[in-house]
From TrEMBL:
PANTHER family: METHYLMALONYL-COA EPIMERASE, METHYLMALONYL-COA EPIMERASE, MITOCHONDRIAL. It holds the Pfam family Glyoxalase. The lineage of its organism: Bacteria, Bacillati, Bacillota, Bacilli, Bacillales. Signal peptide: none annotated. It comes from the Bacteria. SUPFAM superfamilies: Glyoxalase/Bleomycin resistance protein/Dihydroxybiphenyl dioxygenase (SSF54593). Residues 2-120 form the VOC domain. Keywords: Metal-binding. It comes from Pontibacillus salipaludis. InterPro entries: Glyas_Bleomycin-R_OHBP_Dase, Glyas_Fos-R_dOase_dom, MMCE/EMCE_epimerase, VOC_core. This is VOC domain-containing protein.
Length: 130
């Protein structure tokens, strides 16, 4: 069994296309375009990210309710956080959290979907928080 797509539900498809393009640099695919119901975003790997139009945003209580989180691996988590903050992205914590495989930090899109940035241990800062 292989993962072929990850679906992201949004209340405003046009704004979502713009946000995911301008903020996360994910481009709209012309190959799988079912606008105004859903569209695919181009991603470097063979997993399709599909934006689907829904009636309302989500409002989950992160870490207390079940949800699916997309984790984006980055070379430099702090530089990426700085860039995304300048683009208006809201993070759930001020600093990344250490995990056995490196550092991670959660953020949300304008529709309440939670995603994460991750930096692998090989690239992560040697200065671990206490």
């Amino acid at each position: 069994m292989n993962i072929c797509a990850i679906n992201i539900y949004v209340s405003d498809l046009d704004f979502a296309i713009q946000w995911y393009n301008e903020v996360l640099n994910l481009k709209k695919s012309s190959e799988h375009d079912n606008y105004p119901t859903c569209i695919d975003l181009l991603h470097d790997h063979n997993i399709r990210l599909t934006l689907h139009k829904t009636e309302r945003d989500t409002d989950i209580d992160i870490w207390k309710e079940a949800s699916t989180i997309i984790t984006f691996e980055v070379e430099n988590i702090r530089a990426t956080m700085k860039d995304l903050k300048e683009r208006g992205v809201r993070f759930y914590d001020e600093e990344p959290v250490w995990f056995p495989d490196g550092e991670r930090i959660a953020f949300s899109d304008p529709f309440g979907n939670v995603h994460e940035l991750a930096e692998s241990r090989e690239n992560a800062s040697e200065e671990k928080p206490c």
